[in-house]
Description:
Layout: E1 39-41, E2 54-56, H1 58-67, H2 70-76, H3 80-84, H4 87-96
Helix pairs in contact: 1-4
Amino acid sequence: MARKHSKRDPYGDMHQEEEAPAPAVPCWLCGRPTGSTIVWHHPVPKSRGGRDVVPMHGICQQMLITNFTNSELQRYGMDVEGLLANPAVRKFVDWVANKDPDFTATIAKKPR
Length: 112
């Protein structure tokens, strides 16, 4: 089995050029670049047969889970434009648009 590092040059990896950081992935809901934490969200809940995942901010996922039931999320599916047509979602996305990618806050629950 080959060695990962040479025995004779313990600082050999310091001579290599550093790679550029990977570009930030945009959030599926708000479109802002994701920060250090990426939440992989099922637009169609797993309990409703959803398999696809999309990258999101934690606060964006909290907002969806708080304001929609699994049945409602299943009806919207992968249609982000349909979600953005909802006044509560549009208001949230407009509010969060100028926030830092790692911004978090508590989302109040919708009265049912």
